């Protein structure tokens, strides 16, 4: 096994990364071990986001890697996947923060913005001097968002006026730039706009009392006569199909995060069972305990194989909606099982934050739901394999 490779990676998928990309991943791993892991439970318990760490994340130089020209060679989708996995293995909240900024916000600008817009926004976002958010979900609309948004955009001279509301928008309370999706009142097409967080028509209020991803600052957004210049409309976003293209790619990132959550929970459970003594020895010596550990590892390993292949398909240009949809639905379902087994192995200690596993169990529920529920992703896959759409 290559030096620094994750020991939980039983089939050594990480060894598929070229040396230069493996070095980037190991740098991220060291940072998370030193700067995030010791504090993750405390931040989660207090629902406190570590704003002070953003410059340290910036120093890793990993934000929006596929969309930047700062590296001599393009990075693989597998590397960006392993980075998402590594973050979720330590703290799913920080993986979500990173995914929203680097994948959803930067990805929207990279894929739907003009050359001028990409040059205007992406370099500063890559340096994390400007933090991004992505606003699609609405208070009364989640899974049916493709059928129509309630947030509207009206052309007024050289500007657009946005009105509506968004919900569950990660990073929005402190984001500098928020990608807002709204329906053009005239054409009915879904358009994308980059709204500055300081815009007087934009208001973000933090959502409180969450039981998952507590470190993430999700927000309710109100857009009231929010005026955005035409220059800040994403010039290559012409309908929901373009929005869906962004989601297709980030949906696979959630599958990678699910693998990370499984491996993080597995490591906690393994270490606990080796240390916890009952009946004269460590509980890891019991057959039923080993059975649950191997089930956890099996779920994670099978899903890691799936997302590794998915990354190769994306890099080859043969990447389709149903492939990312199946990965998101399957991996998050197996994640739910795995973290439950991990909590079971910790028994009563599994429900207190002191042992971390409860954080993984709770955060798994959020990953299971966001970026398309299991049911919606099942229907996307089902439509592809049968040729029949079963959506309402």
TrEMBL record:
SUPFAM superfamilies: Acyl-CoA dehydrogenase C-terminal domain-like, Acyl-CoA dehydrogenase NM domain-like. Residues 133-226 form the Acyl-CoA oxidase/dehydrogenase middle domain. InterPro entries: ACX4-like, Acyl-CoA_DH_CS, Acyl-CoA_Oxase/DH_mid-dom, Acyl-CoA_Oxase/DH_mid-dom_sf, AcylCo_DH-like_C, AcylCo_DH/oxidase_C, AcylCoA_DH/ox_N, AcylCoA_DH/ox_N_sf. Pfam families: Acyl-CoA_dh_1, Acyl-CoA_dh_M, Acyl-CoA_dh_N. Gene3D superfamilies: Acyl-CoA dehydrogenase/oxidase, N-terminal domain, Butyryl-CoA Dehydrogenase, subunit A, domain 2, Butyryl-CoA Dehydrogenase, subunit A, domain 3. Belongs to the acyl-CoA dehydrogenase family. The lineage of its organism: Bacteria, Bacillati, Actinomycetota, Actinomycetes, Kitasatosporales. Keywords: FAD, Flavoprotein, Oxidoreductase. The keyword Flavoprotein applies. The keyword Protease does not apply. Residues 22-129 form the Acyl-CoA dehydrogenase/oxidase N-terminal domain. Its cofactor is FAD. Residues 238-385 form the Acyl-CoA dehydrogenase/oxidase C-terminal domain. This is Acyl-CoA dehydrogenase family protein.
């Amino acid at each position: 096994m290559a030096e620094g490779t994750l020991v939980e990676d039983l089939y050594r998928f990480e060894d598929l990364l070229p040396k230069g990309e493996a070095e980037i991943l190991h740098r991220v791993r060291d940072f998370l071990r030193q700067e995030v892991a010791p504090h993750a439970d405390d931040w989660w318990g207090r629902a406190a986001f570590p704003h002070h760490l953003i410059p340290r994340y910036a120093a890793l130089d990993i934000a929006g890697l596929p969309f930047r020209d700062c590296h001599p060679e393009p990075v693989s989708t597998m590397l960006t996947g392993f980075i998402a996995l590594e973050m979720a293995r330590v703290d799913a909240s920080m993986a979500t923060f990173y995914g929203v900024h680097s994948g959803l916000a930067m990805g929207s600008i990279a894929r739907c913005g003009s050359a001028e817009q990409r040059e205007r926004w992406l370099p500063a976002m890559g340096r994390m001097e400007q933090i991004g958010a992505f606003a699609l979900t609405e208070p009364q609309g989640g899974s049916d968002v493709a059928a129509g948004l309630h947030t509207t955009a009206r052309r007024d001279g050289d500007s657009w006026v946005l009105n509506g509301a968004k919900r569950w928008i990660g990073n929005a309370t402190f984001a500098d730039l928020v990608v807002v999706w709204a329906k053009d009142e005239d054409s009915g097409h879904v358009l994308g706009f980059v709204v500055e967080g300081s815009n007087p028509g934009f208001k973000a209020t933090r959502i409180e009392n969450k039981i998952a991803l507590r470190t993430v600052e999700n927000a309710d957004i109100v857009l009231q006569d929010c005026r955005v210049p035409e220059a800040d409309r994403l010039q290559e976003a012409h309908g929901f199909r373009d929005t869906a293209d962004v989601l297709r790619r980030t949906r696979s990132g959630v599958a990678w995060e699910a693998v990370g959550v499984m491996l993080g929970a597995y490591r906690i459970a393994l270490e606990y069972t080796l240390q916890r003594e009952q009946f004269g020895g460590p509980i890891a010596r019991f057959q039923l305990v080993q059975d649950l550990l191997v089930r956890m590892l099996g779920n994670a390993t099978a899903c890691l194989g799936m997302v590794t292949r998915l990354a190769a398909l994306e890099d080859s240009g043969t990447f389709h909606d149903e492939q990312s949809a199946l990965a998101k639905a399957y991996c998050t379902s197996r994640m739910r099982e795995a973290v439950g087994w991990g909590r079971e192995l910790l028994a009563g200690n599994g429900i207190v934050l002191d042992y971390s596993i409860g954080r993984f169990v709770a955060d798994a529920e959020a990953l299971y739901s966001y970026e398309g529920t299991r049911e919606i992703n099942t229907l996307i896959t089902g439509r592809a394999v049968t040729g029949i759409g079963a959506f309402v």
